[in-house]
Each structure stands twice: as C-alpha cells, then as structure tokens.
Design a protein that fits this description.
The protein has 7 helices and 6 strands, in the order E-E-E-E-E-E-H-H-H-H-H-H-H. With about 230 residues, the protein is of the alpha+beta class. It folds into 2 domains: about 90 residues, no CATH class; about 130 residues. The chain has a 6-stranded mixed β-sheet, with no helix packed on it. Strand 1 and strand 2 form a beta hairpin. Helix 3 packs parallel to helix 5 and helix 3 packs antiparallel against helix 6. The protein is elongated and about 75 Å long.
Length: about 230
C-alpha cells in the first residue's frame, strides 16, 4: 500500500513528503499488518543532491518487533517536488514459508528443516549454495522414506551412498526416477563442472517437489492399508 510520509532531512535543509510503498507483511512473523511508523529520515546524495535515500522504521502491530525499509528517489527526470519512490530493500529480509504435509514432516523433519534453510538461501539470492542444500534435503527425504519401508535395515541405509540407496531400497518407479534425476542435478550443484547444462536449479526443485509429492501419496496409501486391515 502507498502512503505519503514526511521524512526529516539528515544533510539537507528541510523535511519532504514521499509516497512510500509500505510492506503489508511483517518480515519477522509473516503476518499481514498495517504497521506503525516509528521514524523516517532521508539523505540527499549526488553532487547536486539530485537523488534521495529514504530510511523508514516501522513497528509490527502483531509481534511488536521493528523493521526497516529503504527507498530511493531520483529528481533527474521529474519535478523536484515529486514524491514517487522505489523500494530498495526490507531489513530483515522477508522470507516465505514452504508448506509440507503433516506426513512428510513426521517422516523426515530434517528434510523439512534443510529444505526450508535452502529456500531461505535462494530467496536471499545465494544461488551458488542453495542447490547444495536442496541436494542434502533430498538425501534426508529418500533415506527416511527407505528406513520407513525397511526398518530392519536402518543402520545400513544411513551409511549407504544416496545413489545406491535409491537403487536398492526404492521400489516405486516414479519416485526412483525423480530421486535419481534430483540426485544428478543436485550433484551438479556441488561440482566444478556441470554434467547437465540443459537443466538448472528450477529443474532440481521441480523434481524434488514431485518426489516429495509421490512419497506423500505413498504414505497416505500406507495409512489407508492400515485402516482396511483393522476396521473399527
């Protein structure tokens, strides 16, 4: 939402009004809010002070934590009294949550944790490391699923390389294909030379989420079988 807010000067003579795009989601708690303004300052930059940086401090009225927003404003192509600005960043950064089913969360809490951290790294534009995180998340998901299907082989599965684990312990052909493809692309994210240049991080995530979806379906089917074996 756009609000006109008066910013007080740091290194120029007078306050100015700016139209600021106010965040509607708190970066701390993720709740939709109409935040309270705490302070707003601006500084003129450039040889002729033809640009401004605006620094807005806000209070979330839900979690009662403060956050900052930075804006830019250029006077070069506009009337000096214009108020239009562009948002540069929010601090701390706003991160979205990735939802996982209750069954997946129960099966592999470490998969959910590592996937979430990798997603946050990706949102922070850390594209060179998040792929390695998704590869690690895949290993937790596949091994925890394999252990559920083969509880007597738990210790062996834990120490088995991922590729061999997929081959030996995953029978569902779709899950096996998706897990293999995800592992190949995940390995590309960790190596100096990529083997699959036609695929990228988005492909890895798509295969990984599809594998998760099929595993979730299989877990639901296991629950249905248990119900049919013991009807009440």
């Amino acid at each position: 939402m756009i609000k006109t807010i008066t910013a007080h000067a740091i290194n120029v003579p007078s306050p100015r009004d700016f139209d600021l795009d106010i965040p509607a989601i708190c970066p701390h708690c993720g709740v939709a809010i109409d935040p309270t303004e705490l302070s707003c300052k601006y500084v003129g930059v450039g040889e002729k002070r033809e640009q401004s940086r605006i620094f807005l401090q806000l209070l979330c009225n839900h979690c009662l934590r403060s956050f900052s927003v930075e804006y830019g404003c250029s006077y070069k192509q506009f009337d000096p009294n214009q108020k239009k600005t562009s948002r540069i960043g929010i601090f701390p950064e706003l991160h979205t949550n990735v939802e996982h089913s209750e069954e997946i969360t129960e099966l592999s809490p470490m998969f959910v944790k590592v996937y979430s951290e990798s997603h946050r790294a990706e949102e922070s534009n850390l594209k060179e490391i998040c792929g390695m995180g998704y590869r690690k998340a895949l290993e937790f998901l596949i091994k925890d699923y394999a252990i559920k299907l083969n509880p007597d082989n738990e210790e062996t599965i834990k120490s088995t390389p991922l590729a061999k684990c997929i081959e030996n312990y995953i029978d569902n052909s779709r899950i096996k294909s998706l897990a293999k493809a995800s592992a190949w692309l995940g390995n590309d994210e960790t190596h100096y030379v990529r083997k699959h240049d036609d695929y990228d991080l988005g492909s890895l995530k798509a295969f990984l989420k599809a594998a998760e979806s099929f595993i979730d379906s299989e877990l639901q089917a296991i629950k249905a079988d248990e119900l049919l074996k013991d009807p009440k």
